[in-house]
Amino acid sequence: MATILSVSGSPSATSRTARLLRHLDDRLAAQGHEVIPLDVRNVPAEALLGADFRHPEIVRATALVERADGIVIGTPVYKAAYSGLLKSLLDLLPQYALAGKTVLPLATGGSTAHVLAIDYALRPVLNSMGPAHITPGWFTLDKDITVGDDGTLTVAPGTAEALAQVTDQFSLALGGRPTLLAATG
User: Fold this and answer.
1) Which of 68, 79, 2, 12 has the alpha carbon at shortest distance from 40?
2) Yes or no: is domain 3-175 CATH 3.30.565.10?
3) Any residues with CB less than 8 A from the CB of 159 and at least 6 apart, and which?
4) What per-residue confidence (pLDDT) applies to 50?
5) What is the pLDDT of residue 183?
6) Mean pLDDT across 5-20
7) Could you write out the three-class secondary structure of 96-115?
């Protein structure tokens, strides 16, 4: 199956965005894909802010992007745009880093007022990087993502079904097999 890089652009250590991505990673792995998580918040600030293309962590991130057949990009939405942390990483990747790749954009946020951030802020940047295909993305409200005291993630039923659908479309675009997993949170 395909190799998928799952990128979280959240700066938070307790990020709902990252937790949601890891939840979807499990679904993709169950469909036979190799999934590699990348939390941009773990890339040293001096590499991102110093625009150091030769920093070992930037070289590593670039190599992970090159290796991947598909990329899931998740970001919290701030002021109707994707995170500055994600922007910093995307700015340091080669201009056509996504050439030939299939991309799934996902976003989380506190208000439906930001639902268009995927299509009007993130998608144009991703498109400029030359992917073969950007599948339909999904915006998830923060209130639809619950993290239990034990760390378990629950996604509201309607949202869980929609996320399962966009994740499965992405998987199928990469040659994946249909999932037998329920769309539960």
Assistant:
1) 12
2) no
3) 140, 141, 144, 145, 185
4) 81
5) 47
6) 94
7) CCCECCEEEEEEEECCHHHC
What is the share, in percent, of the chain residues with pLDDT greater than 90?
Answer: 81
Nearest to 166 by CA among 95, 70, 40: 70
Where do the structural domains in the chain lie, given as residue ranges? Answer: 3-175
* 8 Å CB contact between 121 and 87: no
Amino acid at the residue 77: V
The mean pLDDT of the chain is 92
Whether pLDDT at 184 is above 60: no
Structure tokens at 181: 């997993």
Q: Are 20 and 153 in contact (CB under 8 A)?
A: yes
Main-chain phi, psi angles of 81, to 5 degrees: -140, 165
